[in-house]
Amino acid sequence: INEYRTSLRSNRHRKMFDKISAESRRVQGAVQGNTEVIKGIKNILNKDQYFADVLKINKDVNQHKLRISMTSDGQVNLNSMHKFNPSELYNLGKEGRAQLFSSLGTASVNTSNVPTRITPSTTAVTGYLDGEEEPRGMLVGIHPGEIIRIGTLLVRVSASGAENVALLLENLSQDVYANLMTVAFNVLSNLVPEEIARLRLLSPDEDLIVQTVKFVFNYLRHQRPFGDPSRETDNGIMVVLAEFFQNGMIRQDTILHLKDQLLNWVDSEIHQRRQQYPNKKSIVCAKCNGILFV
Fold first, then answer.
1. 82-84 and 76-78: which strand pairing?
2. Distance between CA atoms of 208 and 191, rounded to whole angstroms?
3. Domain coverage including residue 36
4. Any alpha helices (H) in 29-172, and if so which ranges?
5. Contact at 8 Å (CB) between 181 and 141?
6. Rounded CA gap, 183 and 193, in Å?
7. Which run of H or of E encompasses 148?
8. Tens place of pLDDT for every residue, the chain, 294 residues?
9. Which residues pair with 282 in a beta bridge?
10. 100 and 157 fall within a common domain
11. Do 148 and 283 belong to one domain?
12. How far apart are the first and last CA of the chain?
């Protein structure tokens, strides 16, 4: 994203890019918002014309108190609900835009603004090669201390959680990483409180995000969690990931199927622990029937 921003021809275009990409992150959260922007910029045929048009309509957008973001197909989204081609909005003329923008109403903002610039977060990992110390930068897509909105959930990312996700996915390409995180967050957003409680009870010391990402990664790699290592490469994961997207959008049916697989795995793990530790005391949650062995 930062490389694309640098390639824009003027500071005014870069400011417009900062504005619409920040709004995408505010609405959808950091990871999903950045994923939307990455897909969107790939679908913009003429970036100079695109941001010139956005710049020309920006004053009217501000006057009508609208919020503008980018969509995965390279359009703009007004108030997170109305998708338009920016050139078509410009061609409406000032009066046409005023009439249209008035009909949309002002934006309803329930979450605070996010930074307009992305600062890559890296955790230094020290490695050794031939007796010499070699620093290795590990890009983390979720940042320690960040609070991410996932559906109706607000999830805080711990330092250990961010590091565990980065280590787990460090060999994936940027696109595969972004798509995998999108799938994982969509699965998590579809869990109801009782199901989340079951997942927490299964591994109370592990972050909710880490648990979900770990399951999704192993499922995509093996087509079932912790199965035989048959899909070790990035390309193998890409093949399975393709089933979760259609025309740049998440397929809800595949997300719900993956959610069912996750819950089935949780139940099987609980059953296995019962068999493995028959003498341990189990605490049953009254809400979700989840079991914690102590």
1. antiparallel
2. 11
3. 2-104
4. 30-42, 47-63, 86-91, 93-104, 159-168
5. yes
6. 19
7. strand 147-150
8. 777 888 888 888 988 998 998 888 888 877 778 888 888 899 999 999 999 999 999 999 999 999 999 998 999 999 888 999 999 999 999 999 999 999 988 877 765 554 444 443 333 222 222 333 333 222 335 655 666 666 666 777 777 777 788 788 877 777 778 888 888 888 888 888 888 888 887 777 778 888 888 888 888 877 644 334 444 445 567 777 777 877 767 888 888 989 999 998 888 887 787 787 776 665 655 554 455 555
9. 293
10. no
11. yes
12. 47
Residue type, 96: G
Give yes or no: residues 100 and 190 share one domain: no
Q: Number of structural domains, the chain?
A: 2
Q: In this structure, how many other beta carbons lie within 10 angstroms of the beta carbon of residue 280?
A: 11
Q: At what angle do helices 193-202 and 252-276 cross, to 10 degrees?
A: 40
8 Å CB contact between 87 and 52: no
Place of tokens 């950091």: 30
- Which tokens is 248 given? 């740049």
Q: What is the pTM of this model?
A: 0.47
